[in-house]
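Supplementary Methods, section 5.1.

A reviewer requested that the exact input to the structure prediction be made available. We therefore reproduce it here, unchanged from the version used in the analyses.
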Amino acid sequence: MGTVIFDLDGTLADTSGDLIAAANSCFQQMGHGEVLCMQRDRSVAFRGGRAMLTEGLTRLGQYDAQMVERYYPELLAAYGAAIDVHTRLYPGAIEAVEALSALGYRVGICTNKPEGLAETLLDRLGVRGQFAALIGADTLPVRKPDAAPFVEAVRRAGGEGGKACLIGDTTTDRETARAAGIPCILVTFGPEGRKVTDLEPEALLDDFADLPDLVSELIPLER
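The structure derived from this sequence is encoded token-by-token as follows.
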């Protein structure tokens, strides 16, 4: 049984707008304006909440690790309260997921977003039912690029670890695939664009319409 595991942020959906809005709400609580920009700071957003707080405080000349930890829960709360205002699925993403399922692949998600927030977002987007498994940053004691969350996502989806691949958008996903000993497909429409070529994935994805063919080449199903 072949299994395809997707990253979420920057791979299936552009979540940067809502992440940056949550970070800016924290900076406003601190007495500042909107420090991060939705156009310029997409790549910062996809590195996570602490990275956004660190970047913003550094720009303000006020970086303090304790401030990052203090406001991180506030950021998560703000994000959870407005998780789907700007977020959009990438064109063709769910059609590709459905096509893979129709071919006989098991499909799941392995993300470094907290599991509860990932569940909420997928429910709000109306696509949670398309995925047989969801592993978040806090589902296990470890997170990507450790291989364990990926392996668990494959298991929960009903697949086999040796017959699987990971679809992602960053070096974290590339290193996760290496750790798990499986092929990786990196999207070129995420925050890093075609820079992901330097990570030497087994394949690049420019358009979700091409995904079923790429997956079939990397992990063909037994007939």
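The chain has a mean pLDDT of 95. These observations are discussed further in the main text.
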